[in-house]
Amino acid sequence: MPSATIDILSIGEPLYELSQGPDGRFTPGFGGDSSNAAIAAARLGSRTAYVTRIGADLFGDAFLELWRREGVSAAHVGKDADAPTGVYFITHGPQGHSFTYLRKGSAASRMTPIDMPATAIRSARFLHASGVSLAISETAEAAVRHAFAIAREAGAVLSLDTNFRDRLWPAARARSVIDALAGEAGILKTSMDDALKLTDARSPPAVADHYRRLGAEAVIVTLGNEGTHALTPDGEHRIGAHLVEAIDATGAGDAFTGALLAERVRGESWEAALRFANAAAALSTTGYGAVAPLPRRSDVEALIARG
What we know:
The protein is 39% helix and 27% strand. The chain is an alpha/beta fold. It has a single domain (7-306), classed as UDP-N-acetylmuramoyl-L-alanine:D-glutamate ligase (3-Layer(aba) Sandwich). Strands 5-4-1-8-9-10-11-12-13 form a nine-stranded mixed β-sheet, with helices on both faces. It has a four-stranded mixed β-sheet with strand order 3-2-6-7. The radius of gyration is 18 Å and the shape is globular.
């Protein structure tokens, strides 16, 4: 493949975030799994870019400023005058955090294959999307499939996070689409919560085996405060969780994905990349919101050094 000019190209839907703090007030912020992952990787030194559509509104403008500030290229972000940028609210209770979405008909859901930047995709080392990227609309699913086809032909590594949201599509449909794409994935990340809905497997090793049998090269199963289980080309890995003062796990999975991709970009082994991603995810739970607590490299290295 030609020399890469982008380390990680991510596709999906950004969501403007309003997160409730301990005093009951809502603090503005940013979310959207694929955007979070791109920012997480950029903070760790990767050259990242994002592909989406945003509304011609103040939320979309805020995202453009965020990506500029974080070093994520928005050269392939389109503006839609007839559709809004999606918004979501985070509230907290005894059972943890919960989400309320205002995203139906968002600009991102209007993505189509024609919006996929073929030249940029061919220049990327990793192409990342998620179950949300696929679920927001039929045209967005077609767009992701088209981008994957271009990237696969160019020799890029395809990264897929199942990130199942039953508000967006039924489990049977999600399972069908994700299983079909698993065979193209160099990296497939899921959570045990997702896997219980999307597979017949009931243990982390069985989940990993399910997706490896479908053709995924590396399968990572995140287990919350129990750590991570992975099946990669160099074997099986079980990484324990880090003990931190967690207050909000909103973007933990995205922090994990961004960190894992960033470390693979650097040429780190699977074991080292998984340990680094595990620590990054832990640190991301120590602040409120999805983006604000995404860690820098020195913070992750310090946590790993503490053991």
